[in-house]
Specification:
With 403 residues, this protein is of the alpha+beta class. Helix content is 52%, strand content 21%. The protein contains ten helices and 13 strands. The strands form three sheets. It has a six-stranded antiparallel β-sheet, sandwiched between helices. The chain has a five-stranded mixed β-sheet with strand order 8-10-11-13-12. Helix 6 (162-211) packs antiparallel against helix 7. The chain crosses the membrane at residues 12-33.
């Protein structure tokens, strides 16, 4: 078909067609270039990713750390974990993982798994046995990536923390040794001071009695009384230290027997009637009904005597009351000593049972009585209660079970 316009515009058409082909070739070349460049970038990125993965794998293996993923039913572990456990498959069900967990931790493990999406803490520690080294401490760390109603997806790390646990135990042992060393040093310092005080009085007044000729009979009686009091104090100190050593070695002996609560309390009261004198009134408060108690009479007497001795030291007026009552619902008997003395500040109530603790350094005593009393009462399956108010008085109660 004859087209005169084509002959007329043959040259421009040829130029346009050539430009179109050139543009097309240029576009294809550019696309090929972009593709090649992107392919190189992807290759480099994959290479870097592979290197990072290998480095991460080495780091995890070196740190005894293994990656895992959990879908609510089964967990997928990395290849390194399979090598650790000599498994051919990296898929494990919960019951299979539980088999690695120490029997003492399995109940907590199952509980944590059932509440895994609702636990505020994203870590859990268990004793596990994955290889021939025996049970070691492992920590599961995880995070929830997706949460569907029926198919939660959780990823995490399994980290061996046995070395951390070992270090913690070493620190605890070191701290205990340091505390023991500090206690021994404090003990020696206190003993040196407490022994020296009565000894100086005994030696000093004994020398006065033997060397001084111009001493009246009244002064001799006073000096003899001072020597006697300090001798008794020194004897009590020695006895307390012996008791303390028995406590430390676990050799404190108990000889419990059945006895009447009323008879026991009355005996203690009669003994102290000649010790607690006016202006302080010594009164008793015993119930009419008697009960049978199973106690070591000597040890419990030691406790009540300590309560009464402390009350006597800090009570200058008012009364000191010895009593007991029964709590039938709890099957407990409460032996108490109540006074109207100086009282104890609230912040010091927990400190009074510490060894060598003394509220008043000028009051006789070494500060061991309450510490020893606490151990004695606890050995008889009881405890000590303390109620006190400054300038109003205190009440110490030994609470014990009864038959």
């Amino acid at each position: 078909m004859y087209r005169p316009w084509r002959e007329k515009y043959a040259t421009p058409i040829l130029i346009l067609e050539s430009l179109l082909v050139f543009t097309l070739l240029l576009g294809i070349s550019y696309l090929i270039y972009i593709y090649t460049l992107e392919k190189g970038r992807k290759k480099e990125a994959l290479r870097n990713l592979r290197l990072k993965h290998e480095a991460l794998t080495l780091a995890l293996e070196g740190g005894k750390t293994y990656a895992w993923c959990f879908d609510g039913k089964t967990a997928v572990f990395d290849q390194a974990f399979c090598e650790l456990t000599n498994r051919s498959q990296n898929l494990l069900e919960i019951k299979e993982i539980a088999n690695y967990v120490h029997p003492g931790d399995q109940a907590q493990f199952r509980k944590n798994v059932s509440n895994i999406l609702h636990r505020p803490r994203r870590t859990a520690q268990y004793r596990c046995k994955f290889d021939d080294t025996g049970y070691q401490w492992w920590e599961f760390r995880y995070s929830v990536l997706q949460h569907y109603e029926q198919n939660p997806i959780i990823t995490g790390l399994l980290v061996n923390i046995q070395e951390i646990k070992d270090k913690e135990e070493e620190l605890i042992r070191a701290r205990k040794l340091a505390e023991q060393a500090e206690l021994k040093q404090s003990f020696l310092a206190n003993m040196s001071h407490e022994i020296r005080t009565p000894l100086n009085a005994i030696v000093g007044f004994s020398n006065l009695l033997t060397t001084e000729k111009n001493i009246s009979e009244e002064e001799k009686k006073e000096f003899a009384s001072i020597i006697d009091n300090n001798t008794r104090l020194l004897l009590k100190l020695v006895n307390d230290v012996l008791e303390l050593s028995r406590i430390e070695s676990g050799n404190m002996s108990f000889h419990c027997e059945d006895c009447s609560a009323h008879h026991f309390a009355e005996t203690v009261y009669q003994t102290h009637q000649v010790i607690i004198l006016p202006p302080v009134e010594f009164i008793k408060e015993f119930p009419d009904e008697d009960v049978t108690i199973h106690i070591d009479r000597m040890r419990l007497t030691q406790v009540i005597t300590n309560f009464l001795g402390n009350a006597k030291k800090f009570t200058s007026q008012g009364h000191i009351k010895l009593g007991y009552f029964c709590d039938k619902e709890k099957k407990e008997i409460h032996f108490f000593v109540e006074d109207t003395g100086a009282g104890i500040p609230k912040e010091e109530l927990q400190m009074i049972f510490e060894r060598f603790y003394k509220r008043n350094e000028f009051v006789q005593g070494v500060g061991l009585g309450l510490a020893i009393s606490k151990v004695i009462v606890e050995k008889m399956n009881g405890h000590i209660d303390v109620q006190s108010e400054v300038n109003k008085g205190s009440r110490f109660t030994a609470v014990l079970p009864y038959l």
